[in-house]
Specification:
This protein is an alpha+beta fold. About 30% of the residues lie in helices and about 10% in strands.
């Protein structure tokens, strides 16, 4: 069984880094729920806490930007990940973390 997190990415992912670098001109800008460009936040003394975050996050940490799972490109990316693990490692099952935060049409 493999644990999958399909509702967010880490802030060091190449896709998110491209959004930070190129803003709304990023080819990945629609991969995330950015409410205002530039995507940023105000740091606090606690690494996991921030204020004035301009994008949606998981667990209120600025280091986990939420994916726009309604985006067909994101869906294709996630399905390719799933296909890789099934075909290359013959996994038998998935545990889908926070499945309620993923677009319901995607699950269908």
């Amino acid at each position: 069984m493999l644990d999958a997190v399909f509702n967010h990415m880490g802030d060091t992912s190449p896709q998110w880094q491209d959004v930070l670098k190129n803003g709304q001109d990023s080819i990945y800008a629609d991969w995330f729920h950015v409410n205002q460009f530039p995507a940023n936040y105000e740091e606090s003394a606690d690494f996991e806490e921030a204020s004035n975050i301009t994008y949606d996050t998981f667990a209120f940490t600025p280091h986990m930007p939420k994916l726009n799972t309604a985006n067909p490109e994101v869906q294709a990316y996630l399905l390719e990940i799933a296909r890789f693990w099934i075909e290359e490692y013959d996994i038998d099952a998935w545990r889908l973390d926070v499945a309620n935060e993923v677009d319901h049409a995607f699950w269908k």
